[in-house]
Amino acid sequence: MKGSKPVLGGGITAVIAAIAVGITVYGNRAPQTVPVAKASDPGGRPLAAVGTQHSLRELSVAAGRIAEEELQERGVTLDTGDTLMEILLTVDVPRQEAYAASTAMEKVYDPRDLRAGQKIKIFLRDTDGLKKKWCFERLEFVPETDRLISVEHDSHDSFSAQIETVPHVSDLVAKSGIISSSFFEAARAAEVPTSVLLASYGTLSDALDFQRDFRAGDTFELGFRVYDDGPERGQHPGELVYASIDLRGQSIRAYRYTTSDGYTGFFDESGASLTTNLMKTPIDGARLSSLFGKRKHPILGYTRMHRGLDFAAPRGTPVLAAGNGVVIQKGRNGDFGKYIRIKHDATYSTAYAHLSRYADKLKSGKRIRQGEVIGYVGATGLATGPNLHYEVLRGRRQVDPMKVKLPPRRLLGKVEMARFEREKEKIHSLLAFQPKGVRSREATLAGPAVHERVALKSNGQKKS
User: How many angstroms separate the Cα of 454 from the Cα of each of 120, 171, 255?
Assistant: First the structure.
């Protein structure tokens, strides 16, 4: 990679910020009001044409549809820390009804399982004709691609909840591109859906540093499912299934696979999981400002060993636990300022310094999950500006975090590998339709004419 300049970086925090600027999304603090689309009667005639010549059954259906037209749909997207109760209250649902609906949902789905980014549709009825007094009628959301959770208003403050199976047809779609300025820009130009782009960051961050590994001319391909839920709910992107990254001097192929014992993750060609025991970078959207090794100290002015990596980032940027483990130290630590150390196993520990503050309820002895927020960037201790000083310790000795070679979390055995090979071939086959002259491979739901079928080699490349 010598002689080539790194493309513009930006971790997942930067990605989310860019998405927020460039894409219109629902906000839970400013819900949109969308009138429910008008319907026609069973004969296909507009409701305005319903007259006395219709049967009682037709009139009953028409009345029900007119009532449905009076509903207003408000779409909200959960933010970090939001609860169902809070969301309902922001759209003016009375507290008693919000509590009753949340309680009813618990019979089919635990509201505490709702996650940031979950979209919820809330339907309200205008009871005074002035759009000043609303009655909460129902809510619905899809927590998974094949389930619809709904809560209906029965009478007074009584609600009922149910789970429906969402029938859909799925296809595997591939989008590919060439890096010019950044992976994010190239993926957006290739029309990679936002959810798939974010999933690719989460999936590949164990194997790649998105801020430093990509160069202009590198290529990528992402394979993901697209679901068609019918005319009412339309099409939407599903899970990431395949990722192929070609860097100068390095290639990565990753396949989504579920093992016989139920573990789902991404595995490379050899059957090793991309996920390791430690993340490559414990902070998103930061700039690597100082490497491991001897350097002239920016404050002290003399050369001494720098036993970690420094990531420059805005004050308050979340710092993530690099791996599962137990907090063994939390508190001020001399020049390090506010400091955290986590023990991951009998060999490795990680340390995080210069923090502005700690995550709520973090304390020594607490068990931590990989990717969990443990603190926030600051400039406490001996620091020239806000940054994270990050260390990896093997035993009691600091080692270069960029050179630590960690074993995969899962390695497929002989029997499992045979199943994995079959799954790989299936993915290759589904992604093998390549219309001539089209850079981005797509097996679209509409089923366009296929001009050429391109076979794939085992490494995911087209045969010549």
Answer: 40, 17, 19
